[in-house]
Amino acid sequence: MLFKNVTWYFLMLITLTSFISRGSRNLSPQIKKWVVSENSKLRVNGSTNINTFICEIPSYDQIDTITVNKTNKDVLLSGTINLNVKSFDCHNVIMTHDLRKTLKQDQYPVLHISFLTLNKLPDLTAKPEPVTGWVFIEIAGVRKRFEVNYQISQDGQKIIHLLGTRDVNFSDFNLVPPRKLGGMIKTSDKLSVDFHLKMKSMD
């Protein structure tokens, strides 16, 4: 009888240990690293009371890494891209100068986008997949949290394309939109920010 009880407890212990081990593996995070390539770019679309304009940073002059941490509940991101304000080109000398001045280039020469979360882990197929996520955007020393709409895909060369878009306002960052000719030409407070990150997975 004693032998049967010991055997029964031993089998229960093995079963319980196996179950806990499997559960722990299921809860373990999936960590990936995406390296941002130099040919990524950012574009700002704006308007005045007489026309529209596009300002862009046509290429990213650094190599940064975004870490993707998939847990049992969330997809957490860490990593920041740092964009030089002096790299903005509005294809018009006056507009370029005015935008850089408005963004306080001399005092705050770098614009930061820090990635925080995704609502799901993308499948990374050739077909663009809609995903949303949260970021911090810091301009002229002011940092704000925004939700961003993404399209994420991966091409035949295993390049991950992350296209994000978000409307922001100059006033979100305590900035006053540029004005010209005594205020006759007024820039709208709203800007549409688009960025296209090209990345390679390190795994």
Description of the structure:
- The protein has helices spanning 2-27, 93-102, and strands at residues 30-36, 41-47, 52-57, 64-70, 75-78, 80-84, 110-118, 129-139, 142-154, 159-169, 179-180, 185-186, 190-201.
- The protein has 203 residues and is an alpha+beta fold.
- It is elongated.
- It starts with a helix and ends with a strand.
- Residues 2-6 and 10-28 have low confidence and may be disordered.
Give the key terms.
single chain; 203 residues; alpha+beta; Lipocalin; 8-stranded antiparallel barrel; two-stranded antiparallel sheet; elongated; disordered N terminus; TTHA0802/YceI-like_sf
Please outline the helices and strands.
Elements: H1 2-27, E1 30-36, E2 41-47, E3 52-57, E4 64-70, E5 75-78, E6 80-84, H2 93-102, E7 110-118, E8 129-139, E9 142-154, E10 159-169, E11 179-180, E12 185-186, E13 190-201
Antiparallel strand pairs: 1-4, 1-13, 2-3, 2-13, 4-5, 5-7, 6-7, 7-8, 8-9, 9-10, 10-13, 11-12
Summarize this entry quickly.
With 203 residues, the protein is an alpha+beta fold. The protein contains two helices and 13 strands. It has a single domain (29-201), classed as Lipid/polyisoprenoid-binding, YceI-like (Lipocalin).
Largest sheet: 8 strands, antiparallel, barrel
The CATH fourth-level homologous superfamily: Lipid/polyisoprenoid-binding, YceI-like
What share of residues are in beta strands? over 45%
Broad shape: elongated
* Low-confidence runs: 2-6, 10-28
CATH class: Mainly Beta
CA distance, first residue to last residue: 54 Å
Radius of gyration: 24 Å
- Enumerate how many helices there are, as a single number: 2
Helix percentage range: 10-25%
Overall residue-averaged pLDDT value: 85
CATH topology: Lipocalin
Task: Report strand order across the widest sheet.
Answer: 1-4-5-7-8-9-10-13
Number of domains: 1
List the helices and strands in order.
HEEEEEEHEEEEEEE
The name of the CATH architecture is Beta Barrel
InterPro entries: TTHA0802/YceI-like_sf
